[in-house]
Amino acid sequence: MTPPYIRYNYVVIEGNIGAGKTSLANMLSDLYNGKLILEQFEDNPFLPKFYQDQQKYAFQLELSFLASRYQQLKDQIATMDLFKSFVIADYFINKSLIFARKTLQDDEFALFSRLFQIIISTVPKPDLLVYLHVNVNRVQQNIRHRGRSYEQEIENSYLEKIQQGYLEYLKQLSDTRILLLDTNNLDFVGSTSDLERVLNLINADYPVGVHTFTL
Fold this sequence. Notes:
Structural class: alpha/beta
CATH superfamily: P-loop containing nucleotide triphosphate hydrolases
Helix content: 40-55%
CATH architecture: 3-Layer(aba) Sandwich
Order of helices and strands: EHEHHEHHEHHEHE
Radius of gyration: 17 Å
Strand order of the largest sheet: 2-3-1-4-5-6
Largest sheet: 6 strands, parallel
Oligomer: single chain
């Protein structure tokens, strides 16, 4: 049975590129009247350039994403809609640090990390972070299916690197409630019963820490 409400005030859905985080965030927003915050990645002029030449454009890309994510969350969460029951976002601002660690040179990452630490204290933490763990082959299928031209040449090695970066980072967070869901065998977009399984897990009561489920 679908839960009647979402117990958390601020929920973040995360995952690798093509893991289904935006789809799930949209569904949660529709079902439970949530205020939806979607990452504005398509407006980033460095993204197509980065996929063509990662070394040249990595720093510009990560810095521009950090600025965009910070400004969006600052504006959207500060202006809470009284007619919405909770906030749901399809990204965790800390992903900037995860991607930067995997794409930047050491000296670039040191500078980026200093900037990140300056701004992060002013951004509210989610009450629940949901990470969708999907294997790289299925992620590639999803990427091909949605058909964004600049994503079609993403290599498995890059996706594996990002996946590993997420897992390493999330498991060391000691102050966040994290739900790590292996959704490789689910179709929560096309199957009502699969969606209900995910919703029931999202709506359960968890202490701070990482809670892992294979569905």
